[in-house]
Write a structure and sequence with these properties.
mainly beta; eight-stranded antiparallel β-barrel; globular; disordered N terminus
């Protein structure tokens, strides 16, 4: 499960409820998306009643080194770090994918496939509700996975 979460971190973006930050622009234009992002957490909300089912934070200082970079030319570059069996911090191969963000619908596609909905996008934070179609709590309703990032 941890490895799946790390992989999902690489792909990035999408959240559940938008919030406005009075100190930063909450404009959802693509220029706010461009840059290097680090994941602060992932929260799983019940698809039935929006209760928090689980919250995952980067597991250690090594995993906290992982980044996702959105470039101005439509590339998403992910760098993932993890502790190997010798407890050494190592990097997975860097992945480069294409992305497209539609600021009018607030949807993001990665490698020509729908990835998620951007719920919040400022110059320093973004939240993305990811399109996993997975029922975490087994109640028969897909739950909402929201990834939180910061610059």
């Amino acid at each position: 499960m941890k490895k799946l979460i790390i992989i999902c971190i690489s792909f990035i973006l999408a959240n559940s409820c938008s919030r406005n930050d009075s100190t930063e622009s909450s404009d959802t234009n693509e220029s706010n998306l461009i840059g290097v992002w680090k994941k602060s957490k992932e929260v799983i909300y019940s698809g039935k009643n929006n209760q928090v089912l689980a919250t995952y934070y980067p597991a250690d200082d090594c995993e906290k080194k992982s980044t996702s970079e959105f470039t101005g030319d439509g590339k998403l570059i992910t760098k993932e770090f993890y502790l190997n069996s010798n407890n050494a911090c190592v990097s997975s191969p860097t992945q480069t994918k294409s992305y497209y963000y539609d600021s009018s619908t607030k949807k993001i596609n990665i490698n020509n496939a729908f990835y998620g909905d951007i719920l919040k996008l400022t110059t320093g934070e973004y939240e993305c509700r990811v399109n996993y179609h997975y029922d975490h709590n087994g109640d028969g309703i897909d739950d909402n996975y929201v990834e939180y990032y910061y610059k």
